[in-house]
Design goal:
By secondary structure, the chain is an alpha/beta fold. The chain has one domain: Alpha/beta knot (3-Layer(aba) Sandwich), CATH 3.40.1280.10. It is built from 3 helices and 7 strands. Helix 1 runs parallel beside helix 3.
Length: 162
Amino acid sequence: MKMHPVEFKERGYSAIGLFNPKTPTNVGSALRACACYGASMLAMTGDRFHGAPTDTFKTYKHIPLLQVNNLYDVIPYDCVPVAVDLIDSATNLIDYKHPERAFYVFGPEDGTLEKQVLSWCRNVIYIPTLGCMNLAATVNVILYDRMVKSKKQGEYNNDSNR
C-alpha cells in the first residue's frame, strides 16, 4: 500500500499516554496511529505490551516508546495533559480546541482512568459515539481530529509563545 505524506506541518506536537492498556494489539495499533498522524512519543504504564504485529511500521524504532510506572512523570515540559475518557464532565471532541502541545492520556478498554490521573489532566474530552470504541480506534480519532482542526484553523488553544 502506497502511503501519502501528511500535507501539513503542525506547530507544537502531540504525545500519547496509555494507562494500563489491555492488549499488545491495541498498543501496536496506537503506535501505528502515532506514525500516521505524526505523534512524537508514546508512553504507557503496565506490563501488558511486549511487541505486536499491528505495529506494521515498527514505530517503536522511530519515536520513543516508554514503559513507565507513572505517566505524570513523562509529561513533556509546558505540555497540556488531556484525558480521553467517557465521563460526565468531559468536553465533546466536536467542540474541543486542541492545545499546541498535548499529551493525550487514554485508559484501558476494560476500565477507565483513575481519579488520580484525572486530577492532573487539564482537560478531559470524549468522542461522541453510540457505543464504546476500542483503544486504538480512539487514539486514531483523536489524532485525526487534531490534524484536521490544526490544518483548518491554523491555531491552537494556548498559542501564547509563538
